Amino acid sequence: MDYFSLLGISVGLAADAFAVCIASGTAAEKVTFNYASKFALCFGLFQAAMPAAGWFIGKAGENFIGTVSHWIALLLLSYIGADMIREAVKKDRGDTPKPSHCGKIKLKTLLGLAVATSIDALAAGVILPSSIGAHTAPQMLAAVVTIGIITCAICYAGIYIGKKFGELCSRKAEIFGGIILIAIGLKIFIEHAAGQ
Questions:
Q1: pLDDT(38) > 90
Q2: In the chain, what is the greatest distance between 2 CA atoms, to the nearest angstrom?
Q3: Do 165 and 27 contact (CB within 8 A), yes or no?
Q4: Which of 61, 77, 65 has the alpha carbon at shortest distance from 121?
Q5: Rg of the chain on CA atoms, in Å
Q6: Distance in angstroms (rounded) separating the CA atoms of residues 18 and 12
Q7: Which of 21-35, 58-72, 127-141 has the highest mean pLDDT?
Q8: What is the pTM of this model?
Q9: pLDDT score for 98
Q10: DSSP secondary-structure letter at 31?
Q11: Number of neighbouring beta carbons within 10 Å of residue 169
Q12: How far apart are CA 155 and CA 166, in angstroms?
C-alpha cells in the first residue's frame, strides 16, 4: 500500500472539515475539551465511514454520487452558516439573552456539518483502492482508519485555532464563522462544476 499517497489523500479529504472546525471554534463562546472532542470524533468517524461506503458502492454508484455530492454540501453548509449569522445578528440586537454557541452544539448541526464535509470522501472511496494500492478488505480498513485518525487530529486542532482567532475578532466572530461555512459550500460546488 502507498502510505505517502494515503497521507496526502487523508489530509486533502480533511481540509474542508478543518476549515469548518476553525469557523466553529471562531463562533464558539467557550471551547472545552468535550466540545472539541465532539467535532473531532464526529468528523473523523464520517471521514472514515464515507470512503468505506464508497468502496462498497463501487463504480455503479460513482456517477450518482458525483451528481449530488456538491449540492448536498452547498445546501447543508449554506443553511448552517446562515443560521449562525442569524443567531449572531439576534444577539447583537439583544433578542436572545444566551449565546447560541456556549461550548455546546446541537447534534443535528454537528451531523449536518460532518455529512457536508465528508460527502466528497464517499466518491473518493470508489477510486481509493487503485489510488493507494489497497485492494483487500484489511488494506481498505487500514486506509479508512488512517483517514479517520488524521481527520480527528486535524479537526481537534482546528477548533482551538478557531477559538484563538475568534478571541481576536470578538464580536463579529460568529458572523465571520457563518460566512466561512457558506464560502466552503460554494467552493465545493464551484470546484465540482469546474471539474465537469
A1: yes
A2: 57
A3: no
A4: 65
A5: 17
A6: 10
A7: 21-35
A8: 0.74
A9: 44
A10: -
A11: 14
A12: 16
Percent of the chain whose predicted confidence (pLDDT) is above 90: 20
Q: How many residues does the chain have?
A: 196
Phi, psi of 30 (to 5 degrees): -145, 135
Report residue 130: phi and psi, to 5°: -75, -25
Question: Residues 21, 162: contact at Cβ < 8 Å?
Answer: yes
Interatomic CA distance for residues 12 and 132, integer angstroms: 14
Continuous H helices in 32-136: 33-57, 59-93, 107-132
Mean pLDDT of 64-84: 74
**183: exposed, middle or buried (Cβ count in 10 Å: 0-12, 13-18, 19+):** middle
**Cα–Cα distance for residue pair 98/193, rounded to 1 Å:** 40
Q: C-alpha distances in angstroms, 190 versus 43, 67, 70, 71, 118?
A: 23, 13, 8, 10, 16
Measured distance CA(16)–CA(181) in Å, rounded? 9
Place of cell 493507494: 132
Region 153-169: what's the mean pLDDT?
A: 87
Among residues 111, 134, 126, the alpha carbon closest in space to that of 17 is found at: 111
